[in-house]
Fold:
Amino acid sequence: MSGPAFLDMTFERLAISTEGPILRVTLNRPDARNALDLAMCRELRAVFEGIEAAPSLRIVRIDAAGPVFCAGADLKERKGKDEIWVRQRRLASFAAYDAIERSSKVVVCVVDGPVVGSGGEIAMASDFIIASERTNFTFPEAHWGTVGATQRLQRVVGKRLAKELLFTARRWPVEEAHAAGLVNRVVVPEALEATVAELLAQIAKAPALALTLAKQSIELGEKTDLATGIRIELAAIERALADSEWRKGLEAFAERDAQGKTS
Structure:
């Protein structure tokens, strides 16, 4: 049986690889500090829409080649373009972020270096972020004469802090981003790979359907009141019980628990 169609595609801006249930998506323009251009927008959207048809792939790791995660939008590509082109380019970036955010897979962003503008959108569209101590965040859109990150950023860190970061374009240390809830974990650079590998391996132990339903329940529940959220969760539980995978998960947990007690 052939693999997912997007794995056969040729990418100019991304490096794609798989290991078991994990798809690794690497922003791969290190010479341009991984600046987001139209081609990268389209490739990100193609990958995240394509993976939905790949049940064997359950986790996506997003990272970047080189010392900079993403330097923001590639402003050089806008030279000589008119307002219509720029608007269409922005729509392409919105579609890319949306594809990441809507993915039914668990999406983990791994950051080891500066994150600017659009790079922050990619990271915030993921389920959560693991960062090294070399990481910092900057949201300079307003100082570039445009608008960006106004929606996801305030939903993650709150309206007042988002306003400060957007209005000042100051470089935001990763320790502050962690304290504000943008970053889940901060580790020394030397421990980043081992930390991520352990985390992804732990996630991969969960049954695929349970992961999908848990993520869906969280996302839908965030948009409603608690009572409706409980009904959403109950529907997810019933869907899980209709599948035999929950028994396998219970048996696997019991086996790991037994091994832990005897080791």
Observations:
- The first strand starts at residue 14 and ends at 19.
- The longest helix spans residues 83-102.
- The chain has a mean pLDDT of 92.
- Strands lie at 14-19, 22-27, 59-64, 106-111, 114-116, 128-132, 136-138, 172-173, 185-187.
